[in-house]
Design a protein that fits this description.
It comes from Paraburkholderia kirstenboschensis. Keywords: Membrane, Transmembrane, Transmembrane helix. This is Transmembrane protein. The chain is rod-shaped, with a radius of gyration of 66 Å. α3 packs antiparallel against α4. The chain is mainly alpha-helical and about 270 residues long. The protein has a domain of about 150 residues. The chain contains six helices and no strands.
């Protein structure tokens, strides 16, 4: 649709250029008489109007090349054309002014109709192109917003995933520190090592040992004074002597006890 609007702008530029040159040549009386046209009075007004039309023609041609100005300039040029056509039809058909010959009046009316149709068509096309451009801009903006939102959601999900992984790794490390991992074998139960508690044993009561009784007249195989054994040093002999004295004292104390067992009487 935009290429069609550019073609309309090129036609508008050619028409505006032609009318601008015609009004710029207002002082050329013979030309106006040959074309059966009414000369503009004063000539200065006609030439000023011609310069304005030539400038508008250049703007229309530039807008047909530059896509950013196409819809705006086509709308302005279209309004100028159809308003000019309406004015021409009102003055020529309604007021019959200026008084033209039959051929000149037909040419002027046809020119007014062409300007009216071309101007309204340009306005409609420019409106359609403008609405389409707005729709494309809205879609691009929505797509850009969607991309930004998707990027934000992806970053948020990545951050949450990283936080969950970090929390899981922390919990796993803490569990591994609390309890060692025992590898489980398929088909066999898993046994866990339990602390061994030793049963409490009652305190043993010390019972004094009763002296061994031996029958009278029996010979003892152990020496009476082990400290006199040959081959011992002086310190060893003194220690053995002290041990033997301590045993004798303990034996005598046990024998003097009232409940101590007595040796059998031999008659």
């Amino acid at each position: 649709m935009k290429p069609l609007l550019r073609a309309v702008l090129i036609v508008d530029a050619l028409l505006l250029l032609a009318f601008g040159l015609l009004f710029l040549l207002t002082p050329w009386t013979s030309l106006y008489n040959a074309l059966l046209l009414v000369q503009t009075q004063p000539a200065l007004v006609g030439q000023a109007f011609g310069v304005a039309l030539i400038g508008l023609a250049w703007l229309a041609l530039h807008a047909s090349i530059d896509g950013g100005l196409t819809s705006s300039v086509a709308r302005v040029v279209g309004h100028v054309n159809w308003l000019t056509g309406v004015l021409m039809l009102v003055w020529l058909l309604g007021l019959h002014t200026p008084a033209l010959t039959g051929f000149g009046q037909i040419v002027a009316v046809l020119t007014g109709v062409v300007l009216l149709v071309l101007g309204l068509g340009g306005v409609r096309l420019s409106g359609a192109v403008r609405r389409r451009e707005k729709l494309l801009v809205a879609e691009a903006t929505a797509a850009e917003r969607a991309e930004k939102q998707a990027a934000k959601d992806a970053a948020k999900n990545a951050a949450n995933r990283a936080a969950n992984e970090a929390a899981g790794n922390t919990a796993t490390s803490m569990d591994s520190r609390r309890e060692p991992v025992v590898p489980a074998t398929a088909g066999f139960p898993v046994y866990r090592a339990e602390p061994l508690v030793e049963p409490a044993m009652p305190a043993a009561t010390a019972v004094p040992a009763a002296p061994a009784t031996r029958p009278l007249g029996s010979a003892s195989s152990a020496p009476l004074h082990p400290a006199d054994e040959p081959g011992l040093s002086a310190s060893e002999r003194a220690a053995r002597a002290e041990a033997a004295a301590a045993r004798d004292e303990a034996r005598n104390a046990a024998a003097d006890a009232p409940n101590a067992p007595r040796p059998p009487f031999h008659g």
